[in-house]
Amino acid sequence: MTNPQVAPGPRTREQRLADTLAMLDSPVRDVWVATASNAPDGTPVPYLVPLSLAWIDDRLVLALDATSRTGRNLLATGTARLSLGATRDVVMIDAVLERSARVAEAPADLAEGYAAQADWDPRPGGADDVYLVLRPQRVQAWREVDEIAGRVLMRDGEWV
After folding, report:
1. pLDDT for position 4
2. Rounded CA gap, 119 and 77, in Å?
3. 128 backbone dihedrals φ, ψ, rounded to 5°
4. What is the set of domains in the chain, with CATH numbers?
5. What are phi and psi of 153, to 5 degrees?
6. If we measure between CA atoms, which residue out of 114, 118, 115, 47 comes closest to residue 76?
7. DSSP string covering the chain, please?
8. What are the C-alpha distances in Å from 19 to residues 13, 27, 55, 86?
9. What does the pLDDT look like over 74-128, one tens digit per residue?
10. Quick one: 1 exposed, middle or buried, by C-beta within 10 A (0-12, 13-18, 19+)?
11. Average pLDDT of the residues in 127-137
12. Rounded CA separation 95/113 (Å)
């Protein structure tokens, strides 16, 4: 079955980048966030959760409870993998934690930017809520198998 909203044939790199940035800039964007920790025996324990996302100054911003499993994992390892879109129009982002800020103490531009794009304001929330600002390191985007080649749009934090 084909998706009638998707043009036939692979997109150019420029179109993929434009589509990716439009997806990141769109309001009320949800994202799947994958993190990992180690069990007491050293076995890796992956964890996946949906969260609201804001794209502010070329950074991914999440708001969550620092004591949640995702918060603990991200603060401990400093890495996450995020996925936007559907399986036939996906953007995969490997990111590193650049900084965190307690929601109650965050700069106004961060808090207001997040609330505006995510359509959710965590400021009335709990004392452990934080903004996690992630710097993308690798970005991949593809729709179908014909876009697998050339799917890397960012490598080592630089658009390619």
Report:
1. 52
2. 28
3. -95, 5
4. 13-155 (2.30.110.10)
5. -100, -25
6. 47
7. ---TTSPSSPPPHHHHHHHHHHHHHSSSEEEEEEEEEE-TTS-EEEEEEEEEEEEETTEEEEEEETTSHHHHHHHHH-EEEEEEEETTEEEEEEEEEEEEEEGGG--HHHHHHHHHHHS---TTS-TTEEEEEEEEEEEEEESSGGGSTT-EEEETTEE-
8. 10, 14, 14, 13
9. 999 999 999 999 988 999 999 999 999 999 999 999 999 999 999 899 999 888 9
10. exposed
11. 97
12. 20
Over residues 18-77, the pLDDT tens digits come to 999 999 999 999 999 999 998 899 888 999 999 999 999 999 999 999 999 999 999 999
CA atoms 52, 55, 56, 62: torsion sign: positive
